[in-house]
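Lab meeting prep.
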Amino acid sequence: MTKKSKNVSPFIAQETVEKRIYLIRNKRVMLDRDLSILYNVKLKVLNQAVKRNLERFPEDFMFQLAKDEAERSRSQIVTLKQGENIKYRPYAFTEPGVAMLSSVLNSREAIQVNIQIIRAFIRMREVQTAHMDLWLKIDALEKKYDQQFQVVFKAIKKSC
């Protein structure tokens, strides 16, 4: 199902993957366009594979962007020139939806890319958790110490 390229390595830099993870509807998602690039398949092929296997993609795995969401994401994606209309609203895949894609695309390259994408989701979650722990500690210290440290706490919060 995927088009194999002898010169393309399935390794993708983690930063490349992380830049393509967006927060839409308070969920971390990847758009079909970005996934087709990472998987090295045409967008049409990816979407056809998904449509043939819709039972594998409930709403918490995949959803189609509303027109206004698609327009807003366009500035981040930069796939269309200003003034052009979006012909097809993109699909957004949550982490479980991305995991399901490897079974639908079913190639060695798709599996390797999928592993990297899932690791990027995990890393982002770990970073968020680490930041949350740090914020909780700062808040606890702020409540514990008196006014003389307020300047320090404001500086810390401003730098983050």
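Slide two material, second protein:
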Amino acid sequence: MNFPSSIDPNDSFIQHVVQRLQDEQVIWLTTLGHDGLPQPRPVWFWWDGETLIIYTMPNAAKVKHIQHDPRVALNFESGHDGEDVVVFHGHAWLDSNPVPSAIRQAYLAKYEAGIAYINMTPESLTATFNTVIRVKPEKVRGGG
């Protein structure tokens, strides 16, 4: 995981964060609306070791928000007891470069059940959610 040098990769909390980045299905992405109000929404994601990759529709509000202000926050659900808090602050951008095929296939495999649940196929999901948002975490905090 390539967090800033101020974060110790051997720290048990950071190791827990990396595990959640690999295992979790949903992360909450909070962008800033044009009025400055935070706009949280749950999203599917892929962690590539440096950035979170989020696929979205090209006209989604989050796209417009990121174009206006790239500062974002992300957080996982904290569990039923509220004891497993992980919050990231970072910068997002729209990435026009193609995502490597292996990552795209791993993303589709991760969400196979979810894709079926929303009555889509991998092909229809790829066609509909064809805009890539990348988020580079710059700070992480949390704990119980």
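Talking points for slide two:
The chain has a mean pLDDT of 91.
The helical segments are 12-23, 61-68, 101-110, 112-117, 122-128.
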